[in-house]
């Protein structure tokens, strides 16, 4: 099974331990099958309101926030990033390796149908709200986009190509977010997502070790190999940086070097938010680690200057700066979704 599966436990475990599942359900997650989950995104909910806010993907790329499903086909993760707002099982005493559940994964079409059903349940209650835009609410019942990014590492799911195809056959665009360590899984992709994201945790191996807290061996080396493969893929490719003041908000040249290796079409530079799991004592983070708007913009400009990328846009509420590889990428960033 290789380095990608050399995690904390060697014996086979259920896909989602009951204690973890119970906690996640209390937090608003809806489970589909044995290992997939969906949860209402703030922007999906707010964009159904009259004059409600839309997400950065709406502003940057043209998706309809109210028609987007925030989900994942895998709950587990081989990193334990300090800045992550999700639950990290080991921090609550659960040592669990989802990769060891090989051969016991749900069928892609059943996952897609289950996610659509749960999305409809999640948005159903908004119909009676007097502030709801009923046209958008009706459209929300017919999802057009899926963000495979809710929690965990989606690339754990071994049938990812078939899952992407199942979404695409239903005219649902796919935004797949990976932590950049599952090199072999990336090489196996025969169907590309509409847009492929890789999370960039740090500009160099020392900071990566401090922040990513990898559960696998050679995570940084795998990440470097991942970027080489990533640079060759024929789909829209994006780097996603989460900046933590005083920790990884340093070494702009290091980030520029990663950009040169991965050659993404777009780079999203986002400020860390001190919420959820990131507030845990084991994370050693505080409110002061959240960068201000001006700091995020200035650091993004430093990366742009060193990489030759263009500063193209800024989403105020999410504190995200968009960099584009060139004018061509900037001109085609708004996708023509047909549904």
Indicate the low-confidence ranges by residue numbers.
Answer: 1-12
What name does the CATH topology carry?
A: TIM Barrel
- Measured as a percent range, the helix fraction is 25-40%
- Dominant shape: globular
Largest sheet: 10 strands, mixed
The secondary-structure element order is HEEHHEHHEHEHEHHEHEHEEH
The CATH superfamily is: Aldolase class I
The first-level CATH class is given as Alpha Beta
Structural class of the helix and strand makeup?
Answer: alpha/beta
Strand order of the largest sheet: 1-2-3-4-5-6-7-8-10-9
The total tally of domains equals 1
**What gap, in angstroms, lies between the N and C termini?**
40 Å
Separate helix tally: 12
The number of strands is 10
Q: Rg from C-alpha positions?
A: 19 Å
Q: Could you tell me the mean pLDDT?
A: 93
Question: What is the CATH architecture term?
Answer: Alpha-Beta Barrel
């Amino acid at each position: 099974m290789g380095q990608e599966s050399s995690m904390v436990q060697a014996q086979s475990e259920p896909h989602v331990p009951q204690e973890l599942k119970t906690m996640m359900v209390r937090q608003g997650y809806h489970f589909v099958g044995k290992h997939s989950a969906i949860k209402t995104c703030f922007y999906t909910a707010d964009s159904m309101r009259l004059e409600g806010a839309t997400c950065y993907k709406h502003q940057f790329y043209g998706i309809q926030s109210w028609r987007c499903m925030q989900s994942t086909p895998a709950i587990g993760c081989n990193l334990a990033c300090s800045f992550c707002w999700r639950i990290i099982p080991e921090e609550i005493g659960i040592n669990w390796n989802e990769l060891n559940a090989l051969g016991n994964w749900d069928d892609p079409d059943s996952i897609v149908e289950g996610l659509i059903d749960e999305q409809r349940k999640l948005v159903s209650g908004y119909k009676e709200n007097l502030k709801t835009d009923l046209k958008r609410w009706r459209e929300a019942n017919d999802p057009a986009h899926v963000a495979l990014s809710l929690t965990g590492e989606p690339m754990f799911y071994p049938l990812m190509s078939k899952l992407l195809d199942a979404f695409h056959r239903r005219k649902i665009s796919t935004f797949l977010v990976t932590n950049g360590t599952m090199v072999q899984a990336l090489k196996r992709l025969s169907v590309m997502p509409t847009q492929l994201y890789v999370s960039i945790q740090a500009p160099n191996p020392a900071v990566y070790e401090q922040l990513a807290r990898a559960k696998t061996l050679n995570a940084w080396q795998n990440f470097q190999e991942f970027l080489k493969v990533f640079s060759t893929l024929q789909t829209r490719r994006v780097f996603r940086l989460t900046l933590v003041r005083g920790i990884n908000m340093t070494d702009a040249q290091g980030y520029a070097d990663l950009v040169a290796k991965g050659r993404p079409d777009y780079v999203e530079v986002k400020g860390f938010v001190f919420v959820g799991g990131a507030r845990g004592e084991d994370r050693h983070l505080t409110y002061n680690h959240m960068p201000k708007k001006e700091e995020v913009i200035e650091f993004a400009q430093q990366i742009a200057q060193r990489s030759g990328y263009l500063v193209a846009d800024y989403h105020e509420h999410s504190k995200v700066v968009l960099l584009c590889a060139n004018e061509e990428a900037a001109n085609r960033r708004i996708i023509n979704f047909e549904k």
